[in-house]
Design goal:
The protein contains 11 helices and 5 strands. It has 237 residues and is an alpha/beta fold. The protein folds into 2 domains: 148 residues, Rossmann fold; 54 residues. Helix 8 crosses helix 9. The protein starts with a strand and ends in a 5-residue tail after the last helix.
Length: 237
Amino acid sequence: MAGVVFVSYSQTDRTTAFELVEALEARGLACWIAPRDITPAAEWAAEIIDAISAASVMVLVFSRHSNQSPQVRREVERAVHKRLPVVAFRLEDVMPERSLEYFLSSQHWLDAFPAARASYHEALILALRRALEPRDPSASGVHAALGTALSSAPAMAARPPAPPASGAATPLAAPEFSAAQLRELERRLARHLGPIAKLLVARAAARATGFEDLRRLLAAELESDQQRSEFLKPQPH
């Protein structure tokens, strides 16, 4: 998938994201965007991870909605871990929350306001086309095309966990959850997040200290207070 642009966005900005993809593809740039490019019956999370790994650059449709989206945060984190350049196509004057600030602090920002948003597509298209052209490997890619030296940005790969200090207490064994508990959490989370719910439940279960902690970890993956409240609401037996 060399030369492909991965487009990350919040579902609230779906219309804007697909308009951007249409503009990029009309000018010959190949794009990958969910859910359009998810293979039918494939595992959603696995497809997204593979697509990010295979892409050449990520365009983040950045707004107050994506700023608070756990899914967007995971996609950006994965891109930076893979040393994939990230270009934030900023829809409004919003700065990243702390959860995103670390990953975006050395990336490039392209403001798409205050004029009509489509008028900013051309600047992004030209920069991406230049960045995706075959070039000397020492060139700085997207950031060079946008006037920012990528080579001066520090590498931000995910840090491995520090080994326990000598004499530290042995961590407690992870609690076990019943298959019925996990299936019910997957079902309720999938109402909002779709097939990725299964992967999120499995990962959260591996680090949760108990069932209530597991529920809180999963609720944090949801974008709105209403969704979190609905997910945490006790269910009738």
